[in-house]
Fold this sequence. Notes:
alpha+beta, Immunoglobulin-like, 6-stranded antiparallel beta sheet, 6-stranded mixed beta sheet, 28% helix, elongated, binds calcium ion
Amino acid sequence: MNSILGSGFEFRLLIGRCRDGLHFSALLLVALLQRSPALEGVTRMGERIAINRGVEVLRSGFALASLGAVQSLAGATTFIAKQGSTPIIDATPQQTRLRNPATGTVGVALNPVAFTYTGTPSAPQYWVITGALPQGLTISPLPNSGVVSSPYPVITGTPIESGSFTLFAQAYGIGGRGIPEPIVFAVVANVHSADSDKNFKISLLELTRVIELYNTRNGTTRTGCYAVASTSTEDGFYPDADRASLATVSLSSYHSADSNRDGKVSLLELTRVIELYNTRTGSTRTGAYKLQTGTEDGFAPSP
Ligand SMILES: [Ca+2]
Ligand SMILES: [Ca+2]
């Protein structure tokens, strides 16, 4: 604690120089805010000092300054989290109006999650972050020893593991500190684009859909061109008969079969899906596959 806060000696000096409890309280608050993260430890120290010195004003100052006290008095302090433009958390100490998990998919860029407080006397100065984030996600600005120096942190990245993860974000500011607010990240495993029913098996029907994309023609020329569907389709794509084979394209997402991400399903790419379709357990074709890093498409047969 000393390395962060400075020595107790300095605080004693500070106390010694301050006869007026109110001034002392303000001075110490300034000192705390400059010194940062372990404000809880500081509060304890402040209380100890206050008790030792009989400066009761200081202790009550801390109690009133804490976000908890402000919350209970005003009821306006609200923890807000959004994923993209969609609110996922909207909670006051009195009422949780909304608390949904942030959602993501392995291998797919996360729709960014931003969080902050509203209704506080001033914006949070920094956040102490604990708990867990899925691998592949990061907080911006990057935490320094678990401390994020921004009122409005944002979480971005591409998760590379599935599961449920809970991060706790505790705000500190001029008004005091909040409670550690949980933000849950629910990351689902990625499935192959061909696997429409998401059962980690490529069925014959699902394979024929990839063959359909492979067979896309522009005039009489087979191109294998596909595009992202704006209406609901079984796999989120559709055969793009308008695009010529040589035309380059940038899609907002690519079919898993399209391992070179050129917006076209080639014969080689089709045969890879057929390989997954042909996965066998003993003599029985199952079409089972699994996630596998380092392969052409991020998947592998799972016999
Ligand atoms: Ca399937
Ligand atoms: Ca391709």
